[in-house]
# Entry
Amino acid sequence: MSDLKDLIQTADWKAEKHVPVIEAQDQIKNGDPLTIQVSVGKQIAHPNTTEHHIRSIDLYFLPAGEKFPYQLARFEFCAHGESIQGPNTSTVFCEPKGTAMLKTSKSGTVIAVSYCNIHGIWQSAKQVQVV
Ligand code: FE2
# Structure
C-alpha cells in the first residue's frame, strides 16, 4: 500500500512542466495583503487537451511553528476542449492559473499542489516573511 505522501512529486519548476509555480512577495508588512499567483507550465508549457491537462491547483499556508496547514484556495480547471462534437473541438480550454490574496501576521510557507489528469500530484513551496 502506498501513502499519499509517497506519491507527491517535486522538482525544479524550470525543468519539470508539472510543478506549480508560486509567485508572491518574499516579504510583506504585518497587515498588508499577500498576493499569490500560482500557475503550471510557466517555463515549459504543459499540454492542454481533453486527454491531458491540469485539473486543479490547491493552495495552502503553513504558519511558522504550526502543525497543520490552512487551505487558502482551490482552483478547478473544468474546460479542456470537450464538446458534443468530441474531444478537443470546443475551442474552450482553461489555463492552469489562479490568484489568491492572504492576510496573516505570521511568517510561513505557501504550499501549492497541482494535479495532472495522467501524471499525478506535484508540489512546490515558497517561504514568506511577515515583518
Ligand atoms: Fe501531465
In short: The mean pLDDT is 96. The domain at 4-130 is CATH 2.60.40.730 (Immunoglobulin-like). The two ends are 44 Å apart (CA to CA).
